[in-house]
Amino acid sequence: MADTSYESAKALDDAYVMRTYGRLPVEFVSGEGATLADSTGKTYIDCLGGIGAVSLGHRNPVVAAALHEQVDKVWQVGNYYYVENRGELARDLSELLSSACDEEGHVIGSTGSAWKTFFANSGAEANEGAIKVARRWGEKKLGGATGILTAQKSFHGRTLATLAATGQDVFHKAFLPMPAGFDAVPLNDADALVAALDNPPASCGPVCAVMLECVQGEGGVWPADYDYLRFVSAECKKRGVLLVIDEVQTGFFRCGAPFSYQLAGIEPDVVSMAKGIADGFPMGAVSATAEVADLMGPGDHGSTFGGNALAAAAGRATVEALVSQKVGEHVIACGAHLRQRLEALPHVTEVRGHGLMLGAQLDVPVATELVNEGLEVGLALNHIGDFILRFLPPLVITEGQVDEGGRQARRALGVRVTGFLRQHRHHRRHRRRKACYVADDVKMTSPAIKSRRRGSFDAKRNNSALPATCTGVTYTLKTPAPVSNSFSRSSSSRNACLCSRGRRRFSLHVLLVLRVTFLATSSSSRASDSWRYVTKSVSSPIWASAFCLVTSSGTCHWCGKRPLYSSP
After folding, report:
1. What is the DSSP letter of 214?
2. 166 or 532, greater pLDDT
3. What is the C-alpha R_g of the chain?
4. How far is CA 298 from the centre of its chain?
5. Up-side HSE of residue 234: CA atoms within 13 Å toward CB?
6. What is the tens place of the pLDDT at every residue in 25-36?
7. What is the pLDDT of residues 373-431, one digit of tens each?
8. What is the phi/psi pair of residue 29, to 5°?
9. What are phi and psi for residue 47, nearest 5 degrees?
10. Nearest CA to 524 among 473, 476, 566?
11. Residue 203: how many other CB atoms lie within 10 Å
């Protein structure tokens, strides 16, 4: 009998499996619904759902029965032949893709569009297929255009082409050179998109498609604005360019609607999907409207295992159960409940996303440690960087499980934040000390600055001590008193990036004591590219040379990404 203990599994994995993942110290051996059990029998509330793939829950009886029935018939024959359930699943997908929804995700009708599908095995393969369909459209309809515009902070897969489409340089560096034909623009920036469509860079070339995620999952759970999606859809139609929506993580009621693009009331030309399509059984697909799909012919694309008999059976059972059990309505209600519980947690400054795809932004860098602490209290959590927790539970999770998970998350968060504070000496002393304020455009020779250089002042009780000439940047206490009206304000706030280089330039004491708010002024002579200074320690009366540079495009000078720490 095989040894199923964690120690044995870890030893074998370390010896014989490529170390492309940093695995957590647990071995899951069984599950049911939204719960998992490890090799010791301990149970966990699953807040990750196999990275968003387990839609109907672990060991769903409907999907299990479909797989058992198919196992007794035939598993794999290849795509030269017809098999049961593949055509039926494609028909179900066509009906689902043509759903019309309101902004909450309730299905209110149908567009009547007809869709055709190619079946693959994963999300990356689905996006590879979408890229080929887009380039075939460019060849046939746009004079050979091959360029594809994506969004910064997007993620489309780990094959070379889908990595090139991914708008995060951190994934590119180890595998250069990337295939040409892609360029990324900021999400929700209509002007940047139009500029790239009008004048695409040489590395991209004439554009045949725009490829977007409606919620950027791997980038930090950043949703696209509905108005932006509507603008992109209209712009693509006007130019004859395809709109490709990546629904690998957001599809199959994950965001409430059958597909997340339906929340914005648009209909793309091509949709890629995977994860929730077969309740965790390996499967992917790319669908296109009939006009686009008919440009692909025999031999243009293929997959040995794509749409095999087992996958088709699992996919059909999953999709039909999602619809018949009205899982979307449950996701809308339970997602709202989960959002409320997350917003009530300490140190959570923002909750982003839709339905049961949510990201919780923390104000202390403990997300990584919190995932490990979650295992101790019976939670399977996921993080993106040090400041974001991502939630992708099975869609059948109950409100009771959400409540229990919220209680355990509060407990784990308290443990990790306390541990984080203890790692930094004298944190209590620093929290009691007085805060220093730094501003861009104040000369160090002013009387107010001279007096402050001789010692800190109590910002809570002495806002009048702030010099009237200050403009640009202020740092306010986490529970601030009203800031002096003499400070210029702007409707847009700046953020502080805490990437590996930027983090070294920020005192962790500042993070503990201060909620950082950048107030940029239009009159600043350096508004396009301003240096943002902070003190090395809130107790220090001496101005520090530590800095973080946030460029005019809103990205970090060091890592090129949008700030990981968001100001309130």
Report:
1. S
2. 166
3. 26
4. 36
5. 9
6. 999 999 999 999
7. 999 999 999 999 999 999 999 999 999 999 999 999 988 887 767 666 666 544 444 44
8. -120, -15
9. -100, 10
10. 473
11. 12
C-alpha distances in Å from residue 262, one per residue of 172, 187, 496: 31, 18, 33
Dist. CA 344–CA 278, nearest whole Å: 33
- CA-based torsion, 46, 52, 57, 60: positive or negative: negative
Q: Provide the 3-class DSSP secondary structure of residue 321.
A: helix
How far is 79 from 97, CA to CA, in rounded Å? Answer: 24
Prediction pTM value = 0.76
Cα distances (angstroms) measured from residue 386 to each of 46, 361, 389: 20, 9, 8
Residue by residue, DSSP assigns 359-422 as EEEESSS-HHHHHHHHHHHTEE-EEETTTEEEE---TT--HHHHHHHHHHHHHHHHHHHHHHHH
Could you give the CA distance from residue 562 to residue 552 in angstroms, rounded to a whole number?
11
Asked whether 154 and 190 are in contact (CB, 8 A), the reply is no
Torsion of CA 504, 506, 510, 511, to 10 degrees: -70
Taking the CA atoms of 406, 411, 416 and 422 in sequence, report the sign of the dihedral they define: positive
Place of tokens 């959590």: 381
Chain-centroid distance, C-alpha 229: 17
| Residue whose tokens read 């139609």 | 237
Backbone angles phi, psi at 202, to 5 degrees: -60, -35
The residues with which 556 forms a beta bridge, in sequence order, are 550
- Name the residue among 202, 218, 118 with its Cα closest to residue 163: 218
Beta-ladder partners of 448? none
Residue 11 and residue 25 in contact, taking contact as beta carbons nearer than 8 Å: no
Q: Which two tokens stand for residue 383?
A: 């993080």
Sign of CA dihedral 65, 66, 69, 75: negative
Q: What is the DSSP string of 103-165?
A: TT--EEEE----EEEEEESSHHHHHHHHHHHHHHHHHHHSTT--EEEEEBT----SSHHHHHH
